[in-house]
Fold each of these.
Amino acid sequence: MAFSPITHLRHFDIAVPDYQKQIDFYKNHWGLTVMEDDGGVTYFAAEGSPEQYSVRVRKSDEKRLDLVSFGAADRTAVDQLASDLIAKGVQLVGEPDDVKTLGGGYGFRFFDLEGRTIEVSADVATRKHRKVEEREDIPVKLSHVVLNSPEPEKMRAWYEQHLGFRLSDTLNHPQTGDLFYFMRCNAQHHSMAIARGPHASLQHASFELRGIDEYMRGSGRLMRAGFRKIWGPGRHRAGDNTFTYFIDPNGNTMEYTTELDAVDEDTWHPSIFDVREPETSDQWGTGGEMDEFITKEMFNDPDKGLYVAPPV
């Protein structure tokens, strides 16, 4: 597309059957702050982020990814994107209008190539946030989301052509092809990634901590609390960021990370990393081998919300 309307990742929203356990997990263990809770929908903010919320949890009989939300520069960019998507035959959930969720703003929702609900908005009110202090092992902000797709090549092309995302790096296996596309919408190495999987689903969501010490303290705190760690601590090659992956109470994978690369748009050239090399998955060699068990955990359950807009 001629321009890139997307400025950054705002939040991801999930629906879960075990609502109270998910609320307890984010509030009392993951380190997020409750911004609003009506007993059926809870908004959580990261203390270091100006975004009104980084994740929204909705009580539901069915587990699903409700939506992924991105920011746009202004109302004009929102309107232009909506017009472009309509011209390309993309199904909108609704025309650009006032946003009814926490923080307000102006935006609209639409379905991506595989039927996930995507939201793009501008003029959302910022929240009063603060500097996360040294040794404070809570998330500073939402870092990125990763989506599983049975056809990642088509998904990559769709996000490039429709939303202006750029490819940062690729993970590849010579026999099975490309396994992972890291996509950026700003200087951050990736705000979204697309992973090869058997079905459309949320692979994982990642939260950035202040630094290595805070990241290690947070990882250790969750391990001591008995939450199931499936991989890490370690450091990836693509993006050069740290990782520790945990399974939340509803079976979603959540990551603590820090030190994700920043990209110089004028000089960056995407690399292709061979997943057979151990350093591709973990430069440190401390996280344990990436194996079929970890991969299966990250496949998650098939998303039951495709082409069905969430009620909130």
Note: The longest helix spans residues 75-87.
Amino acid sequence: MTAPHLRDRYLQDSINTASPAKLLLMLYDRLVLDLMQAEQALRAEEREAAHDKITHAQEIVIELRTSLDVEAWSGAPALANIYGWMLTELIGANIARDADRVAAIRNLAEPLRDTWREAAAAAVAG
């Protein structure tokens, strides 16, 4: 087995065995990474790389939105609206090749990720 194949298998196994909270954090971590890389690529005028990262970020936001149970808690509908805004902004940023719009989305995604991380840690602790 080659090293890339082993790495891919490890990543897939990690995803398959992760708890829902861990999966959510993995999605947010990757979303923030994609947004950072997209912003950098746009600023460097690497359009294809930026497009790929923004498109992947859109897929993550869609997954976050579709997996959100809006009946589960009172804040869920507002979070669904935030995801809708993020998706609209990602599409607009991709079309306009606007690094500042990508940065604004990242500036919202990072505190959301951190909040979910704290909630997951609190749930484990108590």
Note: The radius of gyration is 16 Å.
Amino acid sequence: MSRVSQPELKKFMDRRCYLNLQGGRQVSGVLRGFDMFLNLVVDQAHEELGGGQRKPCGMIVIRGNSVSSMELLDSMKV
């Protein structure tokens, strides 16, 4: 039985992230938490509507299987 390793999300904690979601939606905000299913808690979230427009959403939970990709917006401290 092979074990699939989970993505290392600890380095994204309390940092601004940009998320591409299924269905062509984009969200940005601060990652506050995650679980073993990669469900994410994002604070200060904004839905990116295109054309420079953003819709504030507050704190949201995003199902892990909805996330296509995740990008760190803050610079990493090494």
Note: Strands lie at 16-21, 25-34, 40-50, 53-62, 67-72.
Amino acid sequence: MVCIPCIVIPVLLWVYKKFLEPYVYPAIAPFIKRVWPKKAVQEPTAAKQVQFESDGVANGIATKTSTEVSDKKTD
């Protein structure tokens, strides 16, 4: 048997998300932006920049180069 909160909470969340959020969120958005001015997760820019050398080594880590031919049929 399933407990009552396991049924009621998802239904209430669905009703809020489907019907109430389009009206409530625009009203509370300015307050949320004041409390949370920045993004929660930011990627560091250093991780995005990877420099490749001529011998297939990226920042000291050897990369796997694939010279295999695809086995897909070409009908």
Note: The two ends are 54 Å apart (CA to CA).
